[in-house]
User: Fold these one by one.
Assistant:
Number 1:
Amino acid sequence: MADYNREKDRVTIEETFAKLVDLANSLSAEQRRAAEEGLSEQELALFDLVTRSDLSKADRERVKRESRDLLVKVRAAIEGVDRWTEKEQTQAVR
């Protein structure tokens, strides 16, 4: 019984690892970088806008937290605006 369970666990582990490798290979460079930074792609975009290369590790973590918070606040502000993407005022000039 124990041998059967060990073999079953090994197969499950190998299958899970193969799925993770496939997932990692399917990610774009930005998706990978976002995952490495522990941010969503939208949070990473905000982080990139405000970060500098000379930040300490603690400062980088603080900027990440603030990027997350800012995205939440922006989304909340946008939710309150009725159909804002359809209005002429908010559309880009072509």
Note: The mean pLDDT is 82.
Number 2:
Amino acid sequence: MTVDGAKSPPLPKTNSVDRVLTMSEIAEAAGVSVMTVSRVLNGRPDVAAATRERIQRVVAERGYARNRAASALRNGRSGLIDLVVVTLDSAYHLEIIRGVEERLESTDYRMALSATHGQTQGERQWLAKVIDGSTDGAILVLADGHAAHLERLRQRDIPFVVVDHRGELGSDTPSVGATNWAGGRTATEYLLSLGHRRIAIVSGTAALGCSQERLSGYRAALEAAGLAVDPALCRQGDFRYEDGYREASALLDLPNPPTAIFAGNDMQAVGALNALRARGVSVPADMSIVGFDDVEIATLVNPALTTIRQPLAQMGAFAAAMLLLLIAGEPLGSNRVELATELVVRESCSAPRPA
């Protein structure tokens, strides 16, 4: 199901609770990270005593852990929802985390945050924690398939929802994503509308479904405009700044360089922007750039980045609402939800210079 501007599903009915601090507010008050707050609230030992005491003092003033845990226990639940991400050092993941937390704020649930850092050991650790019965459900933001992990969750009857899945999912897997194909096509059509005809793409990780869909949308827009796809203009990245920098430099070295670049995400777009600047190429006068995601860095660079907005926080909120319905035994309207992407026009694009 594709959703354009939709609100997330309604929360299941629950006992009302007094307004309490979110983990972000606790972290700010205690001068620590959200991850550290999560560790303390979930009784994990890897926090310094002084830091633990400071966090506990903050939450004691508002009763965060006591009120929510007690309510959960009265209902025969642990009161915990696990949110598992690859890393905490990207704006992409932080936006999803923010959406989940905001959606859970008015419920009895606490969020337990884990990062796997893309390592097998980290994945085993979160899986062991989730299946030991200490959680009521899980929201998974992972790098690839993990089909075996999902099957183990099913075997233990642990509800879960996958966010922005990068591999293939069965139709019975609850998931939330974005319209990547439409986003790729929209970005390319915008550049075509400005008069660009040699448009390059720096894709994300080749094995990931979102990368393939964005590339397919790019191809579809060119073909609809009667333009052949030039293999020399299709470059491969891995969603990293360094990839954007490297591939933009390679594009400039072509006998007939492009006049515009569509990057697979904003970090690659910023890498391309800096590569062009280092070579004396003006953006957008000499080269236009479009990114994907619309994370904070898109507004901080100069020129501000035109990009495709992926509603990351809304995706997190939608996933949390879906999971709460599953925990409550209520049906989902659809197992697969795709939220609409949209073009955000800023300053990194203009018509190409006359030949």
Note: Confidence is low (pLDDT under 50) at residues 13-19, 65-75.
